[in-house]
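Human: Not sure, check this?
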Amino acid sequence: MSQIRKKNSKQYIGGFGLFSEIKRRIVSRLFWGRSSLYKNVVHVLVIFITISVTLSGIIYRVSDVSASGSALSGEYTIGTNDLLTQGGSIATVLRTDNTNLSALQNRRYTVQSGDTLESIANSYSVSMDTIRWANPNLISPFTNDIQAGWELAIPEINGVLYTVRDNQSLDDIISLTSVNNNESNRFNIIELNQLEPPYSLRAGTKLFIPDGNLYTQSVNVEGIPRGVFVNPLSSEDCSGYIYQRGFTSYHDGVDLSKWDGCTIEAMANGTVYYAGWETLSGLCVKIDHGGGIHTYYYHLQDIYVKAGDRIQQGDKIGYMGSTGNSTGTHLHFVLKKDFIPVDPEPYVPYNKY
């Protein structure tokens, strides 16, 4: 019996022992391979994560600078935030070689028949005021009239080509012309104009102020110009209005009326510095046209503008009414020079009938 059991035991070992040995060797190999593979995979993952984090940081930095920039025109871009805090300089996004400023100053266009200041501005993707300020000896500050044959300087980007006056500092010019009077805009002006410390300026030097303006600057006119203003009642719905009362020593303007009212337009380019209610004048709009010239539009029924708006000649600013101290629907129109009322008849072409 013991011999039989021993024999059967050998048979068991012979039958299943080989399988167990093979299984043991396979499992051993698997664990050995897993250990090496694990090490290799960990190394690869560490390298991959390091590269990914580095590339992500670079991409984020570039996209952050790009997102904070403002497209100006063509290939030129200036950041709206100080580029120094972004880890770069304006040279990153705006060429500042010796040809850059001359390109901003010297792009020329000859006015063709049928051109308007608006159509030219739209064609070059700049504002009408930018073209006006670049051509002060040609284009009136009060009107958008241009003539065929004029050669206009057209900057590449919106802003002011400013001529430095005697004893002006960079800070003086920034405070006069800069919409964003802050350190980032100062940095842009310095880089764009390639200024060097201590930023001393000579009279006659031309500086381009990106996104600058001359709204608050005095206009060099003698007295009040003639032939450049329009009738504030030029809109079609004002047809048939009546001249009621003229300028006298005790009446500081003219009264123009239409029984059902009509749309009132701006006499000239300018900046609205008041739009609202006054006890005697009712709803009214006051516009500064520069050069000490102001216009006042009283007794309106409705107002279409607000203080601070930059308007163009002929823009709709309100609707005729009878608000305030008024006995009927009319416009009380006042023209002032240096805040002194003057008779508008020689300068403003309204109908007197």
